[in-house]
Structures are given as C-alpha cells and as structure tokens.
Amino acid sequence: MNAPGTRSSRWSDAISITLIVGIALIAWEGAVRARDIPPYLLPAPSLIAKTLWSNASRYLTAAAVTLVEALVGLVLGLVVGTLVAIVITYWRRLERGVLALAILVKATPIVALTPLLIIWFGFGPVPKIIVIALMTFFPILVNVHVGLRSTDSALLDLFHSLAAGRWELFRHAQWPSALPFLCAALRVTGPLSLVGAVVAEWAGASSGLGRAMWMAYTNLDMPALFAAVACSAVMGIGLYGLIVAFEARIIFWD
Predict the structure, then answer these.
(1) Which end of the chain is more exposed for a tag (fewer CB within 10 A), N or C?
(2) pTM of the predicted model, to two decimals?
C-alpha cells in the first residue's frame, strides 16, 4: 500500500527539483542576455551546454578519472574509518589517543599536503586518493564510533542476559545501531570526495575535471570552466542519490 505513495512522492520531488533548477537556469540565461555579459565573465547556460555537447568525449573521460579517484578514496576512508571506530569502541584505552591523532589529521590543511604527496607519489591517482581518504576518514570515524556507543542499553542487557558473545552483540545490536550514523556520514563525505578529487587535481594532475578546470582558468575559457563544474555538480548529485538509495535499502526498519 505504501508503494504508490512512495512513487508519487518521488515524482513530486523530481518535478519540484526540475522546476526550481529550470527557473534558476532561465533567470541566469535571461540576466546574461539582458545585461549583455561577456562569456569570459559569466557564460550563459546555453553556451555552457553547447561547450559540453561539442566536447562530450573529453569531459566524459575527465569525469571518469575524477569519479574513480573519488570512489576509491571514499572507500578507503570508509574502510579505515570504520575499522578504527570499531577498535576504539572495544578497546577504550586507545580511544583518546586515536581520536587526538584523528583530530590532528582533520585540523591539518589537507590541501597544503597535496603538493608534498605529488612529490612523493607523482602526478597519478595515488596522491588524490590519499587526499580524499584523509578528508573522508574523520567524519566516518566519529559517526560510526558514536553509533556503536549509542546502542540501546535495554537491547544490550537483553543480549547479555542471553549470554551472547562479543561478535553476536556487535553483529545484531551495535552494528545495526551504527548504520544510520554511517549513512549520515556518507551523505556528507560522498559529495565531499568529489570536491577533494577536483581540488587535488588542481594542485597537479595529468587528467581529470580539476585539470580541465585549471586549463580553462589559465586560458580564461569560462564556458569550458563552467562545463567542468557542471560535470562535477551532476556527479555529486548522482552520488548523493545513490547513497540515499543505499541507505533506504539497508536501513529497512525505519
């Protein structure tokens, strides 16, 4: 009985988003044409779309490079952050030291480390992946750690009364409790991973959307710059949508 309502709600959201974005693009186009703003200051959406269409293969290739870097870095940050959160939850003596080190990493301007990583690992994808992993590690660590420690005390007492082992307690009580917190962290770190990839590519890369933006910027080719930004924005929206769909599938009890 809920399926039609859910489908109707999704269609309503899609129509609302389309209308809002459409109105914004029309207003942008109208303002550029009315004020006769030159393309090197602010290109019209129609010119950006034309640039994307005429250079589709180049932008698709660059977007694929950036997306792979973002996903690999996100998965690395997810795995390491989750494992560290589990470790400090069960071994409390490590908690303060590990969290202090994690805060130190978080407080360090990661962008400033990018040139150093490029010197060490070259212009390939490795420095970008490390930057993305460092950016996404801390939010995942903190959220999973809080989620594991937020398990309902009554549920824990029930498992203890049944003489459940540590693995059973983790699998059936603590991990389900942490999943909403993990998904909340992914909603933030998913689009953030793309931002990290683009910023890292600005510092030095042989390909990717960041490289395309940098080349367009140095040549004052604003339509090409905005086209690369549009690709990054679309990928960010798509990645966020995938995370929301993944959350709805695995957290079925809400």
Answers:
(1) N
(2) 0.84
